[in-house]
Design a protein that fits this description.
14 strands, Aldehyde Dehydrogenase, Chain A, domain 1, 2 domains, 426 residues, Aldehyde Dehydrogenase, Chain A, domain 2, single chain, alpha/beta, 4-stranded parallel beta sheet, 10-stranded mixed beta sheet
């Protein structure tokens, strides 16, 4: 066991786990209900077929715990036998058979201006789960997280690390069988307390939610030290992407309104992504509209070649919330390139696509993990009043913990999918 790693080695290990988890999050977000069910059913079978391996690991944990003077009640919590293993496998099967909580349409309505607005259940993303002696939590927590389309970073107690690792290995058989990424379920191997501290700091932004399961000491530490936001109104690095199949008239209206209607609100567009395929036909009129309205344009090389009045954009411009009449403009090669830019530089606030290609729009709406995603509508609609909710306190870009019992359904959040036909906000 990696108990005494130097701090830099622990940090490197933990940051690697976080990066791998974030990379796996999109695949899990897009995973079908059938794939997740298959993964869990195979995982349950693997727990049974690997029983002797799991029992051997558990015996090693029990021997170490006894040598360390663990109390009888805690030893009992740590111990696995045939009955407990079967209950663990059966529990995974029960979770597998639950309805898929992802993609549920929680509500849908139309606005008088024709906007179609849906609230859809989506995975939280990357969940760090910190727990103590009970090794069965590895299967329970992993199964619930996966059913809800999440990635789980598991950190069990040092006394159960061998058992937990063996159970996780069985769970990963299910991921492989279903074609899901191994990194969707990861076990922190370091038993150093510094590893927990790094998780509570969020692993450089790669953890969306921390769930503690254990006694008052563990829960107290998590509550006192966690830096993962519970509800955050963060900056709005808002994007509008003009796709190759965009209607020019709609694109001009939407972009100009998204940027210039009110430049000081969090839903104002800060970055414009222009598809290279329509750079000449769409890009020039859109840029002329913005400049004519008094907007400063900061562009990449392709933008400046088209529009010499644009200032050179720096790397900092792609992650700046100007709240002013300034916009950063970049040329991208297709919808995947646009998604990659937004995922790398955005703040998960509000992002829009302008296109007449329904398949491209659905890819954009489904793949982005932003609080609000729009199709053919201005980002200035990112407002509670415009959604028919009345006043708002802000646009939350963080994720809320569930209240009450946390099952698969409670490990989802939601996003708004807004479909329009060129509407702009007056």
């Amino acid at each position: 066991m990696n108990v005494h790693k130097p701090d830099d080695a622990i940090a490197a290990e933990m940051m690697g786990i976080g990066v791998a988890a974030r990379a796996a999050a999109r695949a899990m977000r897009e995973a079908s209900g059938d794939a997740k069910t298959k993964a869990l059913m195979v995982a349950a079978a693997a727990i049974r077929s690997r029983a002797e391996e799991i029992f051997a690991a558990n015996r090693a944990d029990l021997e170490a715990a006894k040598a360390a003077g663990m109390s009888a009640p805690l030893m009992d919590r740590l111990a696995l036998d045939a009955k407990r293993l079967e209950a663990m496998a059966a529990g995974v099967e029960i979770v597998a058979r639950l309805p898929d909580p992802v993609g549920r349409e929680l509500a849908r309505w139309s606005r008088p201006n024709g906007l179609d607005i849906a609230r859809v259940a989506t995975p939280i993303g990357v969940i760090g789960i910190i727990y103590e002696s009970r090794p069965n939590v590895t299967a329970d927590a992993g199964a619930l997280a996966l059913k809800a389309g999440n990635v789980a970073i598991l950190r069990g107690g040092s006394d159960s690390i061998r058992s937990a690792t063996a159970i996780l290995s069985a769970m990963r058989e299910g991921l492989k069988a279903a074609g899901l990424p191994d990194a969707a379920l990861q076990m922190v191997q370091s038993t150093d307390r510094a590893a927990v501290g790094l998780m509570l700091e969020g692993l450089n932004g790669n953890v969306d939610l921390i769930i503690p399961r254990g006694g008052k000491g563990l829960t107290g530490r998590v509550m006192a030290e966690a830096r993962v936001p519970v509800l955050a109104h963060l900056e709005g690095i808002v994007h509008v992407y003009v796709h190759s199949a965009a209607d020019l008239a709609k694109a001009r209206k939407v972009v100009l309104n998204a940027k210039m209607r009110r430049t000081s609100i969090c839903g104002a567009a800060e970055t414009l992504l222009l598809d290279r395929a329509v750079l000449q036909s769409h890009g020039l009129p859109i840029l002329e509209d913005l400049a004519g309205a008094g907007c400063e344009i900061r562009g990449d090389a392709a933008v400046r070649a088209l529009f010499p009045a644009a200032k050179p954009a720096t790397e900092e411009d792609w992650k700046t919330e100007y709240l002013d009449a300034i916009i950063a403009v970049r040329v991208v090669d297709g919808v995947e390139d646009a998604i990659q830019h937004i995922e790398s530089h955005g703040s998960h606030h509000t992002d829009a696509i302008v296109t007449e290609d329904a398949a491209a729009a659905e890819t954009f709406l489904n793949s982005l993990d932003s609080a609000i995603v729009l199709w053919n509508a201005s980002t200035q609609f990112a407002d509670g009043g415009e959604f028919g909710m009345g006043a708002e306190i802000g646009i939350g870009t963080g994720k809320l913990h569930a209240r009450g019992p946390v099952g698969a359904e409670q490990l989802t959040t939601f996003k708004y999918v807004v479909r329009g036909d060129g509407q702009t906000r007056p």
